[in-house]
Amino acid sequence: YTQFLKDFLESAEQYYFVGFCVHYYLFTDQPQQVPELKLGEGRQLTVVEVPSSNRWQEITLRRMERLEKLIESRLINEADYVFSLDVDTKFYGRWGTESLGRLIGVIHPGYYQTPREQFPYERRPESQAFISHAEGDYYYGGAVIGGLVKDVYEVAKTCREQLDIDAAKSIEAAWQEESHLNKYFLYNKPSKVLSPEYLWQDLKARTNEVKIIRFSQVIKNYAAVRPNP
């Protein structure tokens, strides 16, 4: 996924919290592939090397654990807000203070017009991420998680604990950490819900409801960027 870094960072410098102090923490197993970019004043990049994996599912399952540890070791003392963002994305419009709040969720672009009984929640009762067909408000995308550092920490810690419980029973939720995030938001409502303009998909046609695309997942050949199907 390092091939997406240049566009991600260059577009972030153009649109993401312009004029504010921003510290990017980049998790990668290929630090030598991180491009050198000139960042704006008050903006910096720290590369955090993490182990590789033979399964992309395992990589995404570890997101909450890495976010939890980063907050414990660094962010709790140096940041007010934190956003966890997928790197296979690009900014196309201004992303600023209107997105800030205690706890932020983003409506998944693939399901904002879908009846809740058709949401791809984890439906197996034996999983900690289980949500019944009679429950749920929205389906949230796991590619964006944000808010005050202490509140995002509670999300990451709780989801990591639930993931560990599932793993001990050899259960992997339908959409890994995204399933556990949706379970967390079911009982711990976000203080602000962002529309799909903050998490679109380049392959998806524009709709009448979404007028501006601010952040979008780029088109990619999954066979070329993922270690397993």
From TrEMBL:
Keyword Membrane set for record: yes
Bound cofactor: record note: Binds 1 Mn(2+) ion per subunit.
Binding site residues for UDP-N-acetyl-alpha-D-galactosamine: D86, V87, D88
Compartment(s) where it occurs, according to its Swiss-Prot or TrEMBL record: Membrane
Keyword entries, A-Z: Glycosyltransferase, Manganese, Membrane, Metal-binding, Signal-anchor, Transferase, Transmembrane, Transmembrane helix
Cofactor field: Mn(2+)
Binding site for an alpha-L-fucosyl-(1->2)-beta-D-galactosyl derivative: H108, E178
InterPro entries per UniProt: Glyco_trans_6, Nucleotide-diphossugar_trans
UniProt xrefs under Pfam families: Glyco_transf_6 (PF03414)
Positions of the catalytic residues: E178 (nucleophile)
Keyword Metal-binding among UniProt keywords: yes
A GO cellular component entry from the record: membrane
Membrane topology, as annotated: Single-pass type II membrane protein
Source domain of life: Eukaryota
Main location: membrane
Binding sites annotated in the UniProt record for Mn(2+): D86, D88
GO terms, molecular function: glycosyltransferase activity
Family: Belongs to the glycosyltransferase 6 family.
Name the UniProt record assigns to this protein: Globoside alpha-1,3-N-acetylgalactosaminyltransferase 1
Organism annotation: Cirrhinus mrigala
